[in-house]
From TrEMBL:
Signal peptide: none annotated. The keyword RNA-binding applies. SMART domains: THUMP. Residues 44-155 form the THUMP domain. One of its GO terms (molecular function) is RNA binding. This is Class I SAM-dependent RNA methyltransferase. Gene3D superfamilies: 3.30.2130.30, Vaccinia Virus protein VP39. It comes from the Bacteria. Keywords: Methyltransferase, RNA-binding, Transferase. The lineage of its organism: Bacteria, Bacillati, Bacillota, Bacilli, Lactobacillales. It holds the Pfam family RlmL_1st. SUPFAM superfamilies: S-adenosyl-L-methionine-dependent methyltransferases.
Length: 384
């Protein structure tokens, strides 16, 4: 089976987590801005699509070179052995982007790239008429940065954040892979309590449960590369999925709670957890932040509260931050991880974070405020 140069793309600030995931899966990696490079066969392509919790996509690098003229772009693109990836009936749309490059007209870049691929395939497959493009889809991208061209083939299809369980979103939802990143950054162990006090549609608790059970996040969805019969041997996908399913630990008992002041959001969260097959693993309940109390120890709180971006919301959001501080500061064995775009969060929370980490929630700059607890080593089980 052929080995490919691969990249896993990621949101800014998440690349190191993707790199860690890939290392844990056994790959040697090189972490770069917004992506992680590694190598693998089509088996690895499907495996990483199944298992990566924090990545956006997995792509095959088809070609990489410098180009400062359209002639150079055309010639170097045509010289690539596209026939090794694309069958005669392949449908291959070409997306493009360009940054700080002489070839800055993106529609022209896309058109030239497409034309070069068509010319190559027409010669190889002895086609004098237009290529049919009626078969499986092979999404291509030409990305130019500082005159350096990167040609990639997307193996994922719909982004990896689309796990398939979110039947209803509610307002301003956090993407599933970002929620998974928050869970991983919290260094939570599945035998400890996990709480999301402002759970919304339930994404963070659901991602925690998937992580706690070691369930492959992509197990309930398909990937566009699984349709490529010329590259994926018959039965390979089922084999990899069966292996992933066998690695899940469905017997471990999890202590995961999600709360929200809005009962409608709790209903949505419960609907989503049912779709994920996690009904009995997460307790969702309508509850205001100020009304939550616990006698448990060594827990983790992960929250994505409202940011108060609208002026009219700021007062209520700042009051919420004050309530969080008053409640959480006395919980010395608990660690708290709170994501917000409000740069004054620490002021209203009433304590400086142990550490801050810059992340991007979509295009919005946010900070993850981390307050590390001191674990009570004498208590390995939570108090009842």
């Amino acid at each position: 089976m052929q080995t490919y140069q691969l990249i896993a793309t990621a949101a800014s600030g998440i690349e190191a987590l993707v790199g860690k995931e890939l290392r844990n899966l056994g790959y040697e990696v090189k972490v770069e801005n917004s992506r992680v490079r590694f190598q693998g066969t089509m088996k690895d392509v499907i495996r990483t699509n199944l298992w990566l919790r924090t990545a956006d996509r997995v792509k095959i690098i088809v070609g990489e070179f410098d180009a400062r003229s359209f002639e150079e772009l055309f010639d170097r693109t045509e010289n690539i052995a596209w026939e090794n990836l694309l069958p005669v009936d392949a449908n291959f749309p070409v997306e493009g982007k360009s940054h700080n490059s002489q070839l800055h007209n993106v529609p022209s870049v896309q058109a030239i790239t497409k034309k070069a691929i068509v010319q190559r395939l027409s010669k190889v497959y002895h086609r004098r008429t237009r290529l049919a493009e009626t078969g499986a889809t092979y999404p291509l991208e030409v990305a130019i940065n500082k005159d350096h061209v990167l040609l990639t083939l997307d193996t994922t299809g719909e982004g990896l954040f689309k796990r398939g369980y979110r039947k209803n979103k509610g307002g301003a939802p956090l993407k599933e892979n970002m929620a998974a990143a928050l869970v991983m950054l919290a260094h939570w162990f599945p035998d400890n309590p996990f709480v999301d006090p402002v759970c919304g549609s339930g994404t963070i608790p659901i991602e925690a449960a998937l992580y706690g059970h070691n369930i492959a996040p992509g197990i309930n969805r398909s990937f566009i590369s699984e349709q490529w019969v010329n590259l994926v041997p018959d039965g390979l996908s089922d084999e990899i999925r069966d292996e992933a399913d066998s690695l899940a630990d469905y017997d471990i008992e999890l202590d995961i709670h999600g709360y929200d002041i809005d009962q409608n959001m709790i209903d949505i969260a419960q609907e989503n957890s049912r779709a994920a097959g996690l009904t009995h693993d997460i307790t969702f309940k309508q509850l205001a932040v100020k009304d939550w109390h616990t006698t448990k120890v060594n827990g983790v709180i992960v929250a994505n509260p409202p940011y108060g971006e609208r002026l009219s919301d700021k007062e209520s959001v700042h009051e919420l931050y004050r309530q969080m501080g008053d409640l959480y500061r006395p919980l010395t064995t608990w660690s708290k991880y709170i994501l917000t775009a409000d740069m004054e969060f620490e002021k209203y929370y009433g304590a400086q974070a142990t550490k801050r980490r810059k992340l991007y929630n979509g295009a919005l700059r946010t900070d993850l405020y981390q307050y590390w607890g001191k674990k009570d080593r004498s208590k390995f089980k939570t108090l009842k």
